[in-house]
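seq:
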Amino acid sequence: MNLSKLESILKGRNSQPHQLIEVLHDVQDTYGYIPEEAMKEISKTLGVPLIEVYRAASFYKAFKLKPSGKYVITVCNGTACHVRGSKLLLDQAMSQLGIKPGEVTDDGLFSIECVNCLGACSLGPIISENSSYYPKMTPARLRKLIDSIRQEEKEEVEHAQDSYEGRSGDFASAASPR
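struct:
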């Protein structure tokens, strides 16, 4: 964990316990979750008992105590989505990704979350992928969405490898004697 980032978040907030929630948001925005090391440092800096930092971080659903995948598939399990088949969407995601809600795929690309409501009941069943919403989702469309994300990631990696190989060749030719 890069402590310099945490230090900049905490700078000027010594002994200010009323800043706890704001600091937790800033830490999560920076790291993608709230690491245990960060909670200890927050406790010391703000003068808040560690148990209170943990209590706040674990109480609010907006805070994550474990890293998530690069792409978070959130399945709405509200009543409207449930009666329209959200369980089938959850089953599709778990089967295709080989993980359960709260887990991360081995490649770090995906995680699955379930929520009580995404606030778009008339569009259910609905899922979100990071901050993009997909209304009236079906298992087949979800499978295609996950496949397309994987394909984009694969192409991005291949492009990066091609760029790296091209540059290393340039360096090699520049360094070779003429």
